Amino acid sequence: MKTVVLVYSGGLDTSVCIPMMREDYGFEKVVTVTIDLGQPAEDIEEAAQRARAMNTEHYTVDAKDEFACDFVFASLKANGDYEGYPLSTAIGRPLISLKAVEIAKKLKADAFCHGCTGKGNDQFRIEFIMRTLMPGAEIIAPMREKNLTRVEEIEYAKRKGIPITVSLDKIWSIDENMWGRSIEGGRLEEPGFAPPEEIYKWTADPRKAPDEPQEVEIGFDGGVPVSVDGQNMKPVELIGHMNKLAGKHGVGRIDMMEDRLLGLKVRENYECPAAVALLTAHRALETFVCTRDELAFKAMVDRKWGEMAYAGLWLDPLKEDLEAFIGKIQERVTGTVRMRFFKGSTIVTGRKSDFAIYSESLASFDTKEFDQRDSLGIVKTHGMQQKFYHRLRVEGRE
Amino acid sequence: MKTVVLVYSGGLDTSVCIPMMREDYGFEKVVTVTIDLGQPAEDIEEAAQRARAMNTEHYTVDAKDEFACDFVFASLKANGDYEGYPLSTAIGRPLISLKAVEIAKKLKADAFCHGCTGKGNDQFRIEFIMRTLMPGAEIIAPMREKNLTRVEEIEYAKRKGIPITVSLDKIWSIDENMWGRSIEGGRLEEPGFAPPEEIYKWTADPRKAPDEPQEVEIGFDGGVPVSVDGQNMKPVELIGHMNKLAGKHGVGRIDMMEDRLLGLKVRENYECPAAVALLTAHRALETFVCTRDELAFKAMVDRKWGEMAYAGLWLDPLKEDLEAFIGKIQERVTGTVRMRFFKGSTIVTGRKSDFAIYSESLASFDTKEFDQRDSLGIVKTHGMQQKFYHRLRVEGRE
Amino acid sequence: MKTVVLVYSGGLDTSVCIPMMREDYGFEKVVTVTIDLGQPAEDIEEAAQRARAMNTEHYTVDAKDEFACDFVFASLKANGDYEGYPLSTAIGRPLISLKAVEIAKKLKADAFCHGCTGKGNDQFRIEFIMRTLMPGAEIIAPMREKNLTRVEEIEYAKRKGIPITVSLDKIWSIDENMWGRSIEGGRLEEPGFAPPEEIYKWTADPRKAPDEPQEVEIGFDGGVPVSVDGQNMKPVELIGHMNKLAGKHGVGRIDMMEDRLLGLKVRENYECPAAVALLTAHRALETFVCTRDELAFKAMVDRKWGEMAYAGLWLDPLKEDLEAFIGKIQERVTGTVRMRFFKGSTIVTGRKSDFAIYSESLASFDTKEFDQRDSLGIVKTHGMQQKFYHRLRVEGRE
Amino acid sequence: MKTVVLVYSGGLDTSVCIPMMREDYGFEKVVTVTIDLGQPAEDIEEAAQRARAMNTEHYTVDAKDEFACDFVFASLKANGDYEGYPLSTAIGRPLISLKAVEIAKKLKADAFCHGCTGKGNDQFRIEFIMRTLMPGAEIIAPMREKNLTRVEEIEYAKRKGIPITVSLDKIWSIDENMWGRSIEGGRLEEPGFAPPEEIYKWTADPRKAPDEPQEVEIGFDGGVPVSVDGQNMKPVELIGHMNKLAGKHGVGRIDMMEDRLLGLKVRENYECPAAVALLTAHRALETFVCTRDELAFKAMVDRKWGEMAYAGLWLDPLKEDLEAFIGKIQERVTGTVRMRFFKGSTIVTGRKSDFAIYSESLASFDTKEFDQRDSLGIVKTHGMQQKFYHRLRVEGRE
Question: Chain C: nearest CA to B297, how far in angstroms?
């Protein structure tokens, strides 16, 4: 039986794919797959109901733990960032695709279908995994191929009796997983348009946030957060807790310009309280336990990791190499960081670690061992070649 | 007449150097030089009075314009930062030293004297310029050579009748120029000690800052700020204005770990409202007018520039090379950035530029020219080598 | 009159394009353009004859001087290299395309045609310039669109009476300009197949090269070579001279693996005596006049420049930024380098420059100024943070 | 009993240290340690005899296997190079120092003594290990402290009856281990002086090398060489074999400018046939099995590793991090490389590996899967932002 696995969100774009797969592409069996990465439970439930209404073989996969441990925390260790964007949707796509592949392999499916357009980043992230792990399977992207307008899609949905309630004036295009929300579209595309309050769902308006700052202490072990204010938490729980805590204080709104994979520069808005808070804490702990040279080099490693994660190259060998580097450092990223949330801002107010390159005993060791006069030779030779250079310039001039 | 030029702040350390130069080092003429980089006018006046009282030949040099244009703005173009510290004291030292050298050359002085200890960064910054531009002159650093305690210094000052009023319980060590204040010492050295409100002078406590956000629009021309809210300002005036505006909203407090030149990791606190605001705006404008590749590469160039500026290598040929790169980009860093200050935070809410890689006309050009189906080949070849790699691994395993 | 400008080499691929443009694509006027970058004069003449025989409006553009000065020497300043390949074809393509655009603009042409396939790098290099400078013009690449086999092409040429003499057993695909030859195809695609002697045209078999080494002294001024053995030469002449001199000694054969733009790894063979000799000399002079930090950073700048030049992004703003950096350094890359050619190898045996960071007078200055005991403090603090790190590990273990 | 451990080579500098330690520094027990890293057996034997004659407690440590496996091969994996110098002395020093520390710990020694001057690199490499692993022990460097001339040293040696035969006209300063020889001093310090034939000991004069090229096939497993021409060899044996083979053909002479740790630029000559041959082979294999992105990033990692190894920071945590990255890649650096030695040159003529990103089956897979027309979209979007940039410039101009 000719089978297609459809990555299914329950929305309009992927719902119209169902009759299309049957009628236009001739698949006898349409399998719908919805992956739970921490988006709202209603969305997941709604997707399942619609799929059932349309008679697909439907799978809901709870990948929250895997996402938190192997994707979100991998990103945290790399201070996961692309041009100021704390990678969230970007790192969710590969897992969605991996789960779809697992099911497709089990069902010996012939093809995949997804709802990405031909302009964005997600087609790259989704298809890279599919093409890599099931190179023989066909991949169908109807939105990219058919170039339908929203109006045409809605009409098609009506004709096919698709049980979907959409309005023509849907303004924002939103994607969401536990590590963040991305909001695009409408007037947000204008770089000079200040984002309206209504686009935010997880964060308080800083003006209406509590008038008292809140201090919180994050405990890290081996580069990943394990406790909040002394209380141990599992990854999914901890991330959820931080989203609430930081969000309450208006922390986590990001408004930026971003360079998409195809080379288009666009304006993007993100809302990611836990990500902003935990990334700030993680970086602060690294500056405490790493040497200067490690910090400088890891900045380059992290940047490269971020570029690859943004591109969705999750199975890239270079990514594995970089993670070997990153992982070696994380062995020492253990300790606690105290932060203060207040009216939209996050400030680090203290750090503690047994692995700190700094410590009082070392500082006093330094005092004993270090005779200030020893600096003389260091200062004299500081910039020695630069002095030669200058002498040449001066002599050349004269 | 054996002459020494003393870099003079008017404080205890440099005041005790005056009799020392005469009595211990045998200089017949002691010249004191105080450079105005925008520190408090009282400090500069006090230094002049003390110098007069101690019968030195005193020079006060107003270098504010030169500092703003050639040092602060050079740093801004490079997004001047070292491990999170917006370089301020670090870029002031070379100019102080350059001015001291100018005077020393005019007076045909034999030696320099400065008050830096043997543990910090400033000895490197000050002496590099002196050794480079007057390689024949002796350099004397009594604090480094004599290792005096504060108590011993005060006693020495009393014995010598130095007109100075110091208390033994001076807690914080502070340095200040128009681009920022640095506050060190006392319990601030403990990485887990939250900085007390009293160390701040330019910034409001965010809790007590205005309850209404303030929007401000910075105009840039060729990488440097030229106007605020549409009103043109000269560099020194603009920086002063931004210090007040951003400071009023509690913007500009930095609490961090920092790796000193000698390799010691220390805790540092900075207060630099204008620097935080203008650096944020400058970066935002660069993300608007630069290509993705330029942004990624300039991040490396800026980092290197910051390391060299932190080290005080102001005459380094590599610094000149990097500035040629940076300067080429700045030609296009022209436009305006709108920011919002509120309770300690700075957010960019809009950008405009004729040089934006983004623009509505380009976006629509893109729509016309770009057929979504063209993406297919791009997506197919995305990560092509990575797919090969994976195939090898799989085939190897089987 | 509907006009197409064809980038014309005179070979089979571009010759079959002529009737195609007329018959299949409906152009009334076919303009052929051949750009002289120093390839054999017979090839250029042959192209002109064939074009005339096929009644096109033909242009031969002598771009040798421009190529040497603005492309080859720009590459030399950047130590122009991609994975070991001294960029030659890669930097020729943009100039060919620029000249074609000049003519197309003058003639108000509607379209371009070129003979590149859809697998290689040249389509990117050629079209980037055309699309950038004449975004409205159509670009036709028949080889890419039609996927013709060589046999089909020859039959088509016969049918159309194209005056071309090709054999079916043409083995190597060759491209040539004054900076190098590239040889591909046939068994050379096998990474384990040793290249046969017959593929080389400019270099002697090292085994048959002269039994006596030859010394040669290259004079540089501002980063570009200006004399050989004391005799001033113009760029084109100097490059030609070096091709003969180094080639006589078997210098300049390169056999390597290369990663193409589309991600395919291929085996490539190059023959480029002047390029190997002059790049070696230029690098040697840079190590003499640049500081250690400049050498380390320029290595990154050069690598990026090489990647962009390989990709044909000749008008890239980042390329201009990098060239500002590179150009600043070249101001001092003035002096002479003595080399020895022998049986395929090039060795630097001496360097001289007024801008050397090294010089005997500086060395003696060093001796006077530098007291060995000054090293003590430097040695003591060498790796200070690393010592802290080790102490922590040891204490942690105990 | 007050004990000092002297790193002993048997030469003049370290021999005069023995009576000095007893007479000037008051040590009751002088322990001499000579580490065998593959230098000539006579040197090691001579050192032992002299030590016995001078009544020290002498240890000869055979560290050849450890050096080959843990130092030379670690360097090979990182393509170990500093500015063109295949690190040899640089990586030998840390092991010498580690072995001295082992003995000092066993004997509970109070101090170390070494013969390095205050101008070179070795003091940093030797002392870093000692200070890190035995921070309490004193370190004495008489050559640095006393600034003796060669004549004074010889007279001192005579007075003390040191059994040493040295001439005043010793010209070259030589260091040697199995991975290379370094030759300095005398007229070699002049950058324009061609090195005389007499300084070479391991390599034939290329002019007198065999008239027939020799092909050799190196087998690698996990980044390290394990066989030559199909015959398995242990590390020390293989390195020795390659020194002879490549040396016979004049391969491995290096003449370069080098930037020392203290900032002095010097001329250096090296002779290292095995290193040049094996590094060439290792690099060639990496270009075969690594992706383009891996090659580009590893170049930066290798450069950093080389800088740290040159600086002797063998216990640096960043070095461990980089080695985690390097090690991950080496898992696939398995295969064979065929090279040709001839009259001083080394050329790679073939590569084979099961992990090649290239392979004939993949190439044919490529042909099937890759439709040339898919390139169209890729070519169209190539340099998209650069096209925007150019349009702005043009529009701005008009």
Answer: 8
User: Does A379 lie in the same domain as A347?
Assistant: no
Structural domain tally of chain D? Answer: 3
Which of C376, C379, C330 shows the shortest CA–CA distance to C355? C330
State whether D385 and B357 contact (CB < 8 Å).
Answer: yes
| Closest CB to A381 among D263, D294, D328 | D263
Question: How does DSSP assign C155-181, residue by residue?
Answer: HHHHHTT------TT---EEEEETTEE
Q: What is the DSSP string of A298-355?
A: HHHHHHHHHHHHHTT-TT-HHHHHHHHHHHHHHTT--EEEEEEEETTEEEEEEEE-TT
Residues C187 and C147 in one domain: no
With contact defined as beta carbons under 8 Å apart, do C40 and C12 qualify?
no
**Domain end marker among B117, B146, B170:** B170
Give chains near D: 3+ CB pairs under 8 A: A, B, C
Of B290, B317, B385, the CB nearest to C294: B317
Q: What is the pLDDT of residues D264-282, one digit of tens each?
A: 899 999 999 999 999 999 9
Residues 6 or more apart whose CB falls under 8 angstroms from that of C109 comprise C3, C4, C5, C31, C103, C137
Whole-angstrom Cα distance, residue A195 to residue A186?
11
The CA-based angle C295-C300-C302, given to 5 degrees, is 85
- DSSP letters, C51-62, are HHHTT-EEEEEE
Which amino acid appears at position B167 of this protein? S
Q: Is C138 on the interface with B (CB under 8 A)?
A: no
Measure CB to CB from residue B191 to each of A265, A288, A292 and give the nearest one.
A288
* Disruptive mutation site among A303, A354, A373, A385 for chain C (greatest number of C CBs within 10 Å): A385
Residues 6+ apart with CB under 8 A from D227: D218, D219, D233, D238
Q: A364 in contact with C at a CB cutoff of 8 Å?
A: no
Please state the ipTM of this predicted complex: 0.94
For residue B93, indicate whether it is catalytic.
yes
Q: Is B19 helix (H, G, I), strand (E, B) or coil?
A: helix
Domain CATH number, residue D145:
3.40.50.620
Chain A partners (3+ C-beta pairs within 8 A): B, C, D
C-alpha pair distances (Å), B28 with each of A235, B5, B21, B34, D245: 71, 11, 9, 20, 71
Nearest to C192 among D352, D363, D373 (CB): D352
Most A-contacting residue of B79, B82, B130, B131 (CB-CB within 10 A), to test interface = B131
Residues of A in contact with D308 (CB under 8 A): 293
Q: Are residues A27 and A129 in the same domain?
A: yes
Clarify whether residues C189 and C306 are in a common domain.
yes
CA dihedral D44, D46, D52, D58 (to 10 degrees): -10
A-chain CB neighbours of C381 within 8 Å are 370, 374, 378
Q: Which of C22, C50, C93, C332 is catalytic?
A: C93
Per-residue pLDDT of chain D (398 residues; tens, 9 = 90+): 999 999 999 999 999 999 999 999 999 999 999 999 999 999 999 999 999 999 999 999 999 999 999 999 999 999 999 999 999 999 999 999 999 999 999 999 999 999 998 889 999 999 999 999 998 999 999 999 987 777 888 899 999 988 777 665 677 889 999 999 999 888 888 888 989 999 999 999 999 999 999 999 999 999 999 999 999 999 999 999 999 999 999 999 999 999 999 888 999 999 999 999 999 999 999 999 999 999 999 999 999 999 999 999 999 999 999 999 999 999 999 999 999 999 999 999 999 999 998 766 555 444 545 677 788 888 888 888 888 788 777 665 44
User: pLDDT for B362-373, tens place per residue?
Assistant: 554 445 456 777
Tell me which residues of chain C, numbers 8 to 47, contact chain D at a CB-CB cutoff of 8 Å. Answer: none
Which domain, by its residues, includes C375?
Answer: 360-397
